[in-house]
Amino acid sequence: MKALLFLAAAAAVLSTTAAQADNGQRFDWAAQERAYSNTLPRDLAPRCFNGQYVTGANRSGATTVYVQSNEGGIYRLKMADGCAAMDDATRLTVRSNGSDIICPGEAVEAIAWTSAGAQTCKVRDVRHVTGRERAALAKAPRR
Fold first, then answer.
1. Non-local CB neighbours of 73 within 8 Å, separated by 6+ positions
2. Coil, strand, or helix at residue 57?
């Protein structure tokens, strides 16, 4: 009877213990990262922003304006030609084909809000500023 109870207890313990044997399978961390990453898909997506909520703008020369979105991204806008309204602007918004969502490579117009009203300026190029470019801008002398 004791032997039977001993065998039953041993079988119960062995059936609940996790397998310790190496079956040759290895966890693929790279595949896991590609499939479930919170950063990789966003890093590869176009860097778009809402042009209605520009929190900062700095002009650099006659045809370049750097804008900061409310999400913190910085974008370089190259104007089609000089836009005198930018000198007097108290606020700046950006539109793309009637939409507030601005993505690099789209046809865009900047709207400079001045005391005389809204003035529209054509933008020929929108580009997200990289981290290295942002660092260089931060070190640039102020005018």
1. 47, 49, 128, 129
2. strand
- Residues in the chain, overall count: 143
Higher pLDDT, 19 or 122: 122
Kindly write down the DSSP assignment for every residue of 67-118, as one continuous string: EEETTS-EEEEEESS--THHHH-SEEEEEBTTBSEE-TTS-EEEEEEETTEE
Helices and strands, number each (H, E), in the chain = 5, 8
What is the arithmetic mean of pLDDT over 59-65? 87
In the Cβ-directed half-sphere of 118, how many Cα atoms lie within 13 Å? 8
* Alpha-carbon separation of residue 16 from 5, 23, 24 (angstroms): 17, 18, 22
Q: What is the pTM of this model?
A: 0.64
